[in-house]
Structure prediction request, 363 residues.
Amino acid sequence: MTTTPTPTSTTIITQALKLKHQIIGNIHINKELRELDCYDCNLDKLPDKLPEKLRILNCYNNKLTEIKNIPKNLKILRCFHNHLTTLTFPKKSAIFAINCSHNAIIDIGELPGKLKDLICFMNNITTLPTLPDTLIHLNCSYNCIIELPKLPTTLEILRCRNNQIYVLPDVLPNDLYRLECCANNLTYLPDLSSNKNLIYLQCGENQLTKLPDLPDTLIYISCDNNQITALPEVLPSALQILQCYNNLLSELPDLPESLKYIYSDNNTAAFHKKYPKLTEMQQYLSFPNNFIEAPPISDVINYVNGINSQERIRARLYKLHSKGNPFLEPYMRRMMHPDRLKTLCDDESIDVDEYMTRYVESL
Prediction:
């Protein structure tokens, strides 16, 4: 029979106290303590006064409703998965990393001036305070934020997805290399062409009708679930993954040589007026549920013949996905030679990972 541990009273004389996974009653902490690990301890409160020399506090996965008198010399605070509603930091706080996600925080208070890493997603924050000019990483996703404050020039990662943000700053930091702003109320994005360090853009589930000028450095673009009618005429030369499904696209622009994966499901007329030119590095082409008018059968044959006439492409295109496309699917399935395509996946994807060479059946 399993017994419930009896709450213990602990006195500590070392510089590190690790009480993880224990049920703790009263904690008596020596003033020399530098690191306190008390996560997963079923705590509903911490001592009113924590040691001034404390540098690291890991108190996550508890039932804390407040943290009183945070020491000004504390450098790392991890208090996620509690019941906190507010955080208050001392003036001239030395904290450079905070993770207070998965709480019920409404007011995060004035932030420490040396803060580099702020992770505060999954709270009830409506307004962020002034951000320190040292901040590198901001994750404020899954809150109720309407507008972002001025972003510091040092910022490299901005994750603000699943809020109510209606506009981003006109100029984003030059050092930014990852931008996640999906699931907001954005109707446009600022010009990104000067953000030469940007490699990751996730802006799906907004109300965008177009994308701005983009830097050549982008490797990943996800702009799905918008109202985009056309992509930029020239896509970034470094692009490897493009997700543009659930939009209003009528065609795709020429695709860069670097592109490996493209997901264009559920558009209005993709591939109707202009088939994309495939390159040797493209490994996944997805165009299900594009409810297009039936193109002339000769066009489809020529299109697939064009793919297969290039030896360097035949062995690279791993999946050709046409499920749910009432016009292209039967044509594509007919034209995959049975000797080269032995099986169809359960989801009707044409998986040629094991059959790298394909033929177009002579009709």
User: Anything to note?
Assistant: The mean pLDDT is 76.
